[in-house]
Design a protein that fits this description.
Blueprint: H1 16-20, E1 26-30, E2 36-40, H2 50-54, E3 69-74, H3 77-81, H4 88-98, E4 102-109, E5 113-119, H5 142-151, E6 155-159, H6 161-168, E7 178-183, H7 191-201, E8 211-213, E9 223-226, E10 229-233, H8 245-251, E11 274-278, E12 299-303, H9 306-315, E13 319-324, H10 326-332, H11 344-353, H12 358-365, H13 367-382
């Protein structure tokens, strides 16, 4: 019987194995730091090895270098200010839905469940807006996605590169009506850690939470909402470090999956039709004086395939679009060159997490920084 699908440290938690198992004997369950890993019911397993044959971590998946690079943001003012990285993903989604198609993207569901959902109406696209610094589950939408593709409607899937890799494994030849967009990914904490943090550390009942945001315009802050009521807002990560456990461990890469540190897709050759994210390093290689002011962020849009290039051309009328050198985009974003490296801080944190809580482990990991901050505060108080 099948006991292990792939090495624990290579598993991306995509859930494709669970979605494809003909006997439904694979369940994704929380492991280290709350990340989901496949657990096989040995009594039901027939050893067909379909899970291994489809596992993205065990297969070579073709990647390609970007054809072009664009700095872009939505022309629609409302769309732009309600997006977190320029609104390119929102414009793409609107275009697909306008064709009678469907979009699969990450959303915050009741009880702080972070999952991909299916959207086929313009008025529901807001459910997919905003950066999500947490891993979502995709296995539950895979049957729907395959059926939509089979029906011939345009289908857009937006996710992390490892999630896109899972979707690509569903097909020997990519269907013409399936468009894949990957988000430049820094790494992902688990859904369980986010939920535990909100409930245990922030003392907010998960049943009250209707939305969680990780970014505001020009501000990296964790925000927890009940309808339109703000229940919690952390200080801006860039100006107030070491004050919010979730955001601090995220930016330091402490709570990522093991596979994030050896990611097969954090490189210049990309897995999807289009790669999008923040355009860090804009103007570093070529002057950007011709680009108007963009106070609420700017998207990096990298068409990878011919299909991706056609899609970008189809939406250019809805975007402020400026071509840039591909190398400028790559050199400005670490995860377009290599995955987040495991440093001594991450090693220490993970070792401590086997003995202590995440909060205590992080405090013990950065104790020197916390001590210096405390001394500075005391000196400032005495002056």
């Amino acid at each position: 019987m099948m006991k292990v699908i792939c090495d624990y440290k290579d598993c991306t938690g995509c859930g494709l194995c669970a979605a494809r198992c003909p006997k439904h004997c694979i369940e994704m369950k929380p492991g280290f730091l709350g990340h989901l890993y496949p657990v096989i019911d040995q009594e039901k397993c027939i050893n067909c090895k379909l899970c291994q044959k489809g596992c993205p971590s065990l297969q070579y998946i073709d990647c390609s270098y970007p054809k072009k690079a664009y700095a872009a943001w939505a022309k629609d003012a409302q769309d732009y200010v309600t997006s977190t990285s320029g609104g390119a993903a929102s414009v793409l989604s609107q275009y697909i839905v306008s064709l009678g198609g469907v979009v699969y993207g990450c959303s915050v569901l009741p009880n702080i469940q972070i999952s991909h959902i299916r959207v086929d109406k313009m008025e529901d696209l807001h459910l997919l807006k905003g950066s999500k610094y947490v891993q979502s589950q995709i296995e539950f939408i895979i049957p729907q996605l395959r059926n939509d593709v089979k029906q011939g409607v345009p289908v857009l899937f937006v996710g992390t590169p490892c999630q896109v890799a899972a979707i690509k494994q569903l097909y020997r030849t990519m269907p013409d009506n399936l468009y894949l967009v990957d988000i430049i990914c820094h790494g992902t904490p688990s859904n369980q850690f986010l939920k535990d943090y909100i409930q245990r550390n922030l003392k907010i009942d998960a049943a009250r939470v209707t939305n969680v945001k990780f970014r505001l315009p020009n501000e990296y802050s964790l925000c927890v909402f009940e309808q339109n009521k703000l229940l919690y807002k952390s200080d801006n990560l860039w100006t107030h470090r070491y004050e919010d456990l979730y955001m601090d461990t995220f930016i330091d890469g402490c709570t990522f999956r093991y596979s994030c540190n050896s990611c097969h897709y954090a490189k210049s050759n990309r897995i999807s039709d289009i790669t999008i994210g923040d355009f860090w390093g804009l103007g570093k290689e070529v002057s950007d004086k011709d680009i108007p002011e963009h106070k609420n962020g700017i998207s990096c849009v990298l068409p990878i395939t011919d299909k991706g290039m056609l899609l970008v051309n189809a939406i250019r009328h809805s975007l402020n679009l400026y071509e840039r050198p591909v190398t400028e985009a790559i050199n400005g974003n670490d995860q377009l060159r290599a995955p987040k490296a495991i440093n001594n801080e991450i090693k220490r944190f993970r070792a401590l997490c086997h003995l202590f809580s995440i909060k205590r482990s992080y405090q013990m990991t950065i104790w020197k920084i916390l001590l210096k901050r405390k001394i500075k505060q005391l000196l400032k108080k005495w002056k």
